[in-house]
Structure prediction request, 186 residues.
Amino acid sequence: MLVAGQARQSGRRAVLIVAVAGIVCGDVLLITLSAAGFAVLMQSLPWLLPAMRVLGAAYLLYLGIAILRSSAAPAQQPSPAHAGFTRGLLMTISNPKPVLFFSTFFPLFIPASQSSVVQGFVMLGLVFESINVLYFVLLCSLLTWANKRLSQQSSSGWLRRLQAGGIQKICGGGLLLCGLVMGLNW
Prediction:
């Protein structure tokens, strides 16, 4: 949703690439922490996961509100590229789902034949992030295609509304919903 919101807000490919880079860097940080024993840290500090869940929920709510405000506001100067990186990074490391995934589920796929656990994490991380980047390339391509298609067919009422900020409203509402659900489940 963040990438779709960034695509709609700026339309610049560089901003999309930077937002995806922030998400990927957050994943790499979580993979590195997992390899360094983050699961042990979370077991010794049981308050850490609920605290991260509350912070993640608050951040998702903040992102959702920011996207909804930007869709309601008149056209403004696009945010700098580094803002997308920061949003992607913070959203990834503050979201408990990737934290749990990389600390508990991800290590289960390290092949037993690996000579070192760190090497296993590196190899699995490379495969995971390659798939992740491919997904974002496909998503961004689809969004670019849809935006061009909407531009060509802007005479239709629902297409015009969708193009005039509807995608941002959907993305902002989706982030708000995720933040609320995450916040209510802590």
